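Let's do one together. I've listed all components of the complex below, 586 residues spread over two lines.
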Amino acid sequence: MSTVINDRAPGAASRGSSGSEIHITFPRVVASEWIKFRTLRSSRIVLVAAIVAMIAIGSLIGYNTGAHWGGGLDPEDRVASAPLQGLYLAQLLIGVLGVLFVSGEYTTGMIRSTLAAVPTRLPVLGAKAVVYSAVTLVTLVPASFAAFFAAQSFLRHYGHGTALSAPTALRVVIATGVYLTLVGLLGSALGWIVRSTPGGISSLVALLLVVPVLLRVLPGQWVQDAAKYLPSEAGASFYGTLHDATALSPGGGLLVLALWVVAALVLAAVLLRRRDG
Amino acid sequence: MIEAHGLTKKYGDKTAVADLSFTVRPGVVTGFLGPNGAGKSTTMRMIIGLDAPTSGTVTVNGKRYAQHRAPLHEVGALLEARAIHTGRSARNHLLAMAATTGIGRRRVDEVIDLVGLHEVADRRAGQFSLGMGQRLGIANALLGDPATVMLDEPVNGLDPEGILWIRNLLKGLASEGRTVFVSSHLMSEMALTAEHLIVVGRGRLIRDVSTREFIASASANSVRVRSPQASQLRDLLLGADITVSSSATGELAVTGLTTDEIGRRAASAGITLLELSPVQASLEEAFMELTGDAVEYRTVTEPKTGIAA
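Okay, and this is what the predicted structure of the assembly comes out as:
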């Protein structure tokens, strides 16, 4: 059985045997993470679920809004971003998948193989971020467009369609896909920081859903002012059509949300370098 | 070649590895022997940079592991069986690992064949038995055609055929000039595989010797003698560096003399011998004796208090 390796002198045979030299490069680590992502069933299921949620909920809202246009609708039900509310479900799916992409390595022990293969570690964090943001961007920006157009096909039927060229429409459709991508990255950063699936998911849900509600019921104006800098609220300023006077601008919302993601990834990187694998 | 200098690892106030220095040389199988909890796994994790030493250094082929451009080509490690995502197939796992360093698909197929996982390579690793998981771990370790192969308790969960396969594989790897470093808590397994031994207990180095020397020193050869004239024989044999003890009437345990010598002396004094046999301490006993103080977990036998007391 050992004959297969007998003809390979250590250090000699495989060095440069396939033309390119055998060593680590960042694109190779990205390729490795892409293999890891696409070879897990859970990745595909959750990603498809998020896309379906966007389009199905968009269609439902389009139908419902069109049928009840006459009465009982709030102003925000009629704007361009209204049919994109599938994002509330999709953000949880994409965020959780981001957590899982990292925490799955810790819960299975895979991380030991990964860090042994790339012992400088940070390329792994970078490669996972590149792969996951690319995957979510190329699937969820189109999903957002699909949800918009699906909703509009119902709305047009009732004579209330909004064109993509309408004010804010194109921005909110793209922003929704980008928001989901950034939430996914936030999830993966939490996965690195917490290193456990339940812990990562709970902290993601706390950050996106629990903390905003808590702040809303707390007294004090400064608390309310601070609340708009939370990822979910900054995100809403970014992908929403309507803005009240105190909210961040769409650009400001994107900036704040991006800063959250960068800060979380930097913390993740520092911890990854410092902690035992 | 692995070189450790004053390697120390503390977790809080618990010291897992204490001032460990050793060199693992290419061309032979070096056994890393010690009871469970002796710090073997921690040491191996430090070698490939998974754990950072509290103090001290360890290098592989002259550099810290993380400084190599192709780490998988320097050290192939099997750490624990659980270092693989259970939801991914064996082949996809190896392809992902190989991709980091630009190792081709052909090499992946090669190591799958080498460890005998051809039939199950596309099954999810979560469905693997312990033995299949070990084989996948070994395929993972050999993927980069590494100059140093480091395996933590590789025979765990393997059937007798698998154990024999591992033994031959390790010897084969060493004969190709590679550095082979294998941990075990089983002395008997190491005696069959390793030429050199690094023995640790409680994180400290106990012995760093060739296996032959270890066995020789371990087998405190004594000779069992039975004779109706035991006390007369005892007086005859006693001398410098010779101990004679007796556990039963007519029975002696002699150390420091060979069976030949005892037989000759007895014959010249006209003493009848009923039995004359060499007794070798087993390797397990020798190992226990060496590491006896260094066992982290031991069964405590409560002294019985009762009617007799």
